[in-house]
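Try this one yourself first.
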């Protein structure tokens, strides 16, 4: 009985030995973790950029101070579509902050704002009435505007508190001025995070 107890005590007192296999496994975990972090950083640096929303022009979709991720290669593979939320520099001005607006019309479209309503190619956009406020100021879109081959007409979701394509100092946004597509939002006082929907 004494001998079996002694064996049990010796069993529990045995030190775990570090084997070459264990060392290899530890180093492989460290290596793969490093590779995963490195690849993630490369993807963010190459394909995306982070910025903050300034102002209330995109409420209730995006809020002032909210952080957003911009996909910079999206429009190298395809063109912006109506409904996309884009980041751009007005008139390509590199000294300006990023403007965040929604594309409402694409190259070749005609745009006009009449009686507070948006018309694309002569057709009133029916969803405008139920989702967005009637626009108090049509700006340069009070007359019909025909978009050129690389021009996009953008509006803020908060239509009456937005400096967008209706403003003469912004106008239609050229493709070369577009930084990328807004695809994810997080942070901010409102706390709504997630993929940005059309």
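Now uncover the answer:
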């Amino acid at each position: 009985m004494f001998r079996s107890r002694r064996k049990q005590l010796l069993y529990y007192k045995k030190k775990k030995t570090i084997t070459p296999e264990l060392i290899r496994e530890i180093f492989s975990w460290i290596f793969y973790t490093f590779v995963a972090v490195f690849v993630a950083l490369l993807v963010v640096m190459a394909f995306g950029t982070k910025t903050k929303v300034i102002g209330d022009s995109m409420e209730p979709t995006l809020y002032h101070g909210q952080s957003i991720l911009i996909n910079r290669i999206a429009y190298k593979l395809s063109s912006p579509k109506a409904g996309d939320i884009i980041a751009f520099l007005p008139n390509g001005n590199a000294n300006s902050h990023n403007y965040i607006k929604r594309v409402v019309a694409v190259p070749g479209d005609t745009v006009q704002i009449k009686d507070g309503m948006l018309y694309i190619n002569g057709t009133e956009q029916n969803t405008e009435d139920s989702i967005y406020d009637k626009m108090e100021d049509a700006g340069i879109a009070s007359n019909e505007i025909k978009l050129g081959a690389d021009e996009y007409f953008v509006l803020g979701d908060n239509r009456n508190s937005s400096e967008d394509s209706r403003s003469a100092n912004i106008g239609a946004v050229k493709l070369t001025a577009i930084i990328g597509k807004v695809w994810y939002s997080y942070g901010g006082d409102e706390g709504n995070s997630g993929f940005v929907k059309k």
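Discussion: The first strand starts at residue 48 and ends at 52. The mean pLDDT is 83.
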